[in-house]
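Hey, can you fold this one?
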Amino acid sequence: MNDDLGTPVLDNHLHLDPDHGRGVEAVKDFARSGGTHLLVVNKPSWLLGVEPDEGADFRPVFETTLDVVARANKILDGRAWPVLGVHPGLVSKLVDDRGFAPDEARDLMAAGLDRAAEYVAAGDALALKTGRPHYEVSESVWEASNAVLRHGLALGAANDCAVQLHTEASEDLTEIADWAADAGLAREKVVKHYAGGRLAGPTPSVMSERDRLEVAAEGGDPFLMETDFVDDPDRPGAVMGPKTVPRRVRWLREEGYDDAIRTAHVETPARVYDIDTESTLNRSESTLER
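Sure. Predicted structure:
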């Protein structure tokens, strides 16, 4: 039986791997704990055994995510949406392991984002995912990565959709938010995945640790909550398990942060993604509702 928390409960960023991980069993854990809505981000291509040579080679990665989202929608009291893109760590796989020049890696990753954007344009995905390495890289790789990131922001603007970012840890990413604005994408539609409780520029998707959430709740600004669950059988529960967001919502309520719960699970999803987590409760449909 579901543990009804009396509110929509959205995990803004997690991965589901129906072939190698727990897949829909993780969704069942989330739902039984009181979770209602999910944004499911495709796993990095190399973790699904895909070594792309052209943009079309990313399609199996995206289709895997669409398939598991459709299955999740049969379980959740709310619904799930796919977020598709190219993990920025792919640049190192291409340059260091496969001998690509940085500009060749840039072009391939941009082509992958182009394919992801086709799913958004067709109404089959909600948002895009891009970013840049969170670790030290050469200047040429950094420049190539920033070019990919900016391409993703331009695709977000062209398709009027949010863009989730995987970047270095920071409390100030106003430069990226400015890039988005220059491309025609509203700053609030840029979402920093794996964020702390305080962030200038994009909308923070806060990792669901109590200290980070307390900072976000006290700050009063728009934010989202996530686990970054990776659904890897060799790393069970990493980064956080699928029950975490519902449990943290319960903790926020106990601490008196009712306004923050509504901010993270109703108001900010509407602001960033144009989704209504309240009206989508107790219904799951086969087509994407925006």
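The first strand starts at residue 10 and ends at 14. Let me know if you want another pass with a different chain boundary.
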